[in-house]
Amino acid sequence: MQQQLEQTYQQALADLEHIQSSDALREWELKILGQKGAITLMLRGIGQLAKEERAAFGKRANEVRDLLATAYESRAELVQEHELARSLEEGQIDVTLPGRAHPTGGLHPSTQTFRELYRIWGDMGFQVFRSRDVETDEMNFTLLNIPEHHPARDMWDTFYTTTPGMILRTHTSPGQIRAMRELGAEGTQPIRVILPGMCYRYEQITARSEMQFHQLEGLAIGRNIRMSDLKGTVTEFARRFYGANAKVRFRASYFPFTEPSMEIDVECFLCGGQGCRVCKYAGWLEIAGAGMVHPTVLRNGGYDPTQWSGFAFGMGPERMTMLKHGIQDIRYFWSNDLRFLEQF
Ligand code: PHE
Question: Given 8, 75, 148, 298, which is the most exposed site by the fewest CB atoms within 10 A?
């Protein structure tokens, strides 16, 4: 038994030297020092020895047990250190990995166009004037020289509300009256404003027309404003928006609230006037309606038309955005499809 003890001791020490993990360490501890471990069993079997051998054996067995326990402790310390080092190494943060992209929102293409319009018109001395979406029939039509039952009302298919006389504005032009009345100081002050906003028309929705769309109205009132001012201002705007080589054309047209009235075209910048699908082979693209403010409208805004004159225009930012980006269908603008919106 004495010999067995020494053998077990040597073997256990040798095994311990090879142990690399705390799992194996625990296994070793159970096998050697545990309740049913080799040393423990030997100590318990001491009764089988001859009486005179017991004391010496017991002393040595206890010694061996303590030596092994000490060896175990120092091995355990080493193994733990290694395991910590290994886990630190494996779990190391790779600072060269690219970060995860943060999803961020973007500006709607119409918003982007509006911001550019504000910048350009702002540089040219026009201030933004906000006007309401829900309008009176009187502002939207009557005061703009479109009396009730006048056939010109058919130019705008209207959304009516349940409140008599209240409608959704069909264009931003009623803001002309509000701007003149609010900024004109009883027809004594000049005005230079742009009026952005949503407009609504009771219309069939198609690739080219929506029932809601933006307009940017422009209004200039002064003592000596002439048609050449309108033409020069719009031409300058087109150069700033579409590029220095932009060509502008004015076509005679009709609006009840301007006289004379015109439509404004820019030379198609996609084909350089040669004709293409975007300009429908005309070489020109319509960007705005405009004209000299009608005397009746000036009077309704509080101005004396013999002393004051002005010009006005209304442009369509969605159309301008479609032309700029080659968007074929206006319905994309309000259908909230991220596949469309994320392209801008
Ligand atoms: N309000 C007109 C429209 O919606 C556009 C326009 C504005 C024309 C100002 C002339 C002057 O069609």
Answer: 148
Which residue's CA is minimally distant from atom 7 of ligand 1? 314
255 lines ligand 1 (CB under 6 A): yes
Rounded Cα–Cα distance for residues 259 and 308 (Å) = 14
Q: What is the CATH number of the domain that holds 287?
A: 3.30.930.10
Domain interval for residue 32: 2-90
| Domain identity same for 265 and 140 | yes
pTM over 0.70: yes
Same domain as 336, residue 280: yes
Burial 324-336 (b: 16+ CB within 10 A, else e): beebeebbbbbee
Single out the residue in 90, 118, 144 at which a domain terminates.
90
Tell me, in angstroms, the distance from the centre of ligand 1 to residue 256's CA.
9
Half-sphere exposure of 254 (CA within 13 A, CB side): 7
CA of 173 to the centre of ligand 1 (A): 6
The residue whose CA is least distant from atom 9 of ligand 1 is 313
**Does a structural domain hold residue 133?**
yes
Question: What is the tens place of the pLDDT at every residue in 138-168?
Answer: 999 999 999 988 888 888 899 999 999 999 9
Pocket test of ligand 1: the residue of 171, 194, 298 to mutate, having most ligand atoms within 8 Å of its CB, is: 171
